[in-house]
Design brief:
Blueprint (H helix, E strand, L loop, with lengths): L12 E3 L2 E3 L3 E7 L2 H4 L3 H15 L5 E7 L3 E4 L6 E2 L2 H13 L8 H14 L5 E7 L10 H15 L6 E5 L5 H14 L3
Parallel strand pairs: 3-4, 3-7, 7-8
Antiparallel strand pairs: 1-2, 4-5, 4-6
Helix pairs in contact: 2-3, 4-5, 5-6
C-alpha cells in the first residue's frame, strides 16, 4: 500500500487520530460498564484490531483490557513481535473481550509500562483508551486517581509516552485525569 509498511520499520497509521509513530505499541483499554454500555468498547476494540493488523512485522505490541481485573495479550511481561500468527491471535483476543465491572486502571498501566520496558524497540508508545473513570472496588475515586498518577510516575522512568484517548461520556474530572496522564509522560 501507499504506507510502504513492508519497507519501513514504522507503519505510519493513526489510532483515534493520533499518529502511531513507534516501533512498539501497547494498548490499555477500559472495558467497564460505563464504556461498554455506550458502544465505546465496541469502537475501541475495532480501532485496536485495525491498528494491530497494520503493524509491520518488525513491530512489537501488547494489548491489555481492564475493569476491576486485567486481561492481557500476551500474558506476562514480554511483548509480541507483529508476525502474521501473533496478529491473528491478538485480533481474536481483542474481539472476544466483553463488558466488565469496575474501573481499576492502575494495574493495567503498570503492566503496559513493564511490557514496554521489556521491549527491544527503539521507540515505544502506550495508548490508554478510557472514559477516565476510576471507580475501583469502592475506593474514593479522586484518591485512586492520585495514587494511579503517582504509581505511573514511579513506574515510567523511561518516559514512555502515554497517549490518552477519551471515549464515552468523559466528565470534566475524568478528562483532567486523561490529560494529566498524557502530559506527564510526553503523550497526547
Amino acid at each position: 500500500d501507499d504506507l510502504s509498511c513492508a519497507r519501513e520499520e514504522r507503519c505510519l497509521t493513526t489510532f483515534a487520530g493520533i499518529p502511531v509513530e513507534a516501533d512498539a505499541v501497547f494498548f490499555v483499554v477500559d472495558r467497564s460498564g460505563s464504556v461498554a454500555n455506550t458502544g465505546s468498547l465496541l469502537w475501541a476494540k475495532g480501532e485496536v484490531a485495525r491498528v494491530v493488523w497494520l503493524l509491520p512485522e518488525v513491530a512489537q505490541f501488547g494489548v491489555l483490557f481492564f475493569d476491576d481485573g486485567l486481561l492481557a495479550f500476551p500474558q506476562g511481561d514480554e511483548p509480541l513481535t507483529a508476525g502474521a500468527t501473533s496478529k491473528q491471535e491478538a485480533v481474536s483476543f481483542i474481539l472476544s473481550i466483553g463488558r466488565g465491572n469496575g474501573t481499576c486502571p492502575a494495574p493495567a498501566l503498570v503492566a503496559a509500562l513493564r511490557m514496554a520496558g521489556r521491549s527491544t524497540a527503539r521507540t515505544k508508545a502506550i495508548f490508554f483508551v478510557s472514559d477516565g473513570g476510576a471507580t475501583c472496588m469502592g475506593a474514593d475515586e479522586a484518591a485512586y486517581v492520585r495514587r494511579t498518577l503517582e504509581t505511573v510516575r514511579a513506574e515510567n522512568k523511561a518516559m514512555i509516552p502515554i497517549n490518552s484517548v477519551g471515549i464515552s461520556d468523559t466528565l470534566p474530572a475524568y478528562e483532567s485525569f486523561l490529560q494529566t496522564l498524557a502530559s506527564e509522560s510526553g503523550g497526547v
